[in-house]
Design goal:
Growth Hormone, Chain: A, 16 helices, 78% helix, globular
Amino acid sequence: MNNVLAARALRDFGDGFVAILLPVYLTALGLSAFHVGVIATLALFGSALLTLGAGFLTARYDVRGLLLASSALMIASGLAYAAANDYAVLLIVAFVGTINPSGGSTSVFVPLEHTVLSGAVAPARRTSAFARYSLIGALAGALGSLAAATPDWLAALGIGTIGAIKIMFGIYALLGLLGGLAYHRLPRMARTQASAVPLGPSRGIVYKLAALFSIDAFAGGFVVHSLLALWLFQRFELSLAAAGAFFFWSGVLSAFSFPVAAWLGARIGLIKTMVYTHIPSSLCLIAAAFVPTLEWALGLLLLRAALSQMDVPTRSSYVMAVVTEAERPAAASVTAVPRSLASSLSPALAGALFASGLQAWPLLLCGGLKIAYDLLLLAAFRKIKPPEER
């Protein structure tokens, strides 16, 4: 388990600075906000396809081997972005690689790591384990956000913006290598005969959860980190260093909400924890679209950060709890993939809205759709309880 946590920390540190630097890099190359949205869309769409494949390949291949292959892809993605300037090449690498514009754990690694974690702990400790997993990842991502200011520091050495960001993509590749070394220390996971059928008795529950999660993810795609950073840059002319500091504190608040989510989930239930914390966070996002000053906008966005991610460990724990052990890899994949596919559609739409001068609309659409998702989730699953709540 500790090796998975170490690899997650390394990966999220890289995602933390890449999500902020990606729009800066692309605009420095002369691309528009719409082009940024298209690359974010392709990155998330490609991630969805990889995640789907990984979830079902666990019935045939060892999880450890798939994690090592994913690390190799992360290395290749970082090196390719460090070398490429052409828009077409950037599009291809975004689609087939692991570059993550969302700053969160939406990637091929997720169903594989969830499988390892859920098999390593007892049911009573499952939510706490996922909370710890999410906490470490979020703190690492927050530190990565601070590292996004590195190009400004490198400017003092005479290194231009594009050259400095290329160096950061090289560091991203190095983090993939270190993560691969952590995965290499994992034991091989034995595959049971039941795993040859990815989804069985829990198929209906998994598909219904996947459909609902896709609404949430489509909404979230309007304000992935890269686009939220772009909104702050355009609306308030926020500096790169200030943006890095904001996303750092945003990540810290999200990180420390995960243990609170585990504590709350043990008392009121996983579904209620997801819904009752999510709706206030969406209202904060909607309000941020209307405030006139940077201070109010950052304050509301930070309050949102303290609440919006409390559904992450509880959601992961819930999915693993309501399926059989043999179904867990496929369930993690099937519930993650629609999220990635749905979230891949909205960044391009958000980019078009930004380019049209409708800067508030991505925030409004995200908040409104997320509230609708929460109400549907509560109505559909409040009576389907994990074993520890029965």
